[in-house]
């Protein structure tokens, strides 16, 4: 079953870094996942996230306000 990964952020450099880390982990580990960027502030608010970037995996907010390591992202996806 494919995972749905959402990156919440308005497009700031940190949000772009998080997107890059997630894409690398997904590609390097052949993870079946869809990556969506959520940039609309009203959509971000629906997740009750006040600090971006945030990482949402299958509708669960897993990380807020920081950029995780690739190992951390891989652990969350497994």
From TrEMBL:
Residues 5-77 form the Thioredoxin-like fold domain. It comes from the Bacteria. The active site is at 12 (nucleophile), 15 (nucleophile). Keywords: Disulfide bond, Redox-active center. Disulfide bonds join 12-15. InterPro entries: Thioredoxin-like_fold, Thioredoxin-like_sf, THIRX-like_proc. NCBIfam families: redox_disulf_2. This is Thioredoxin family protein.
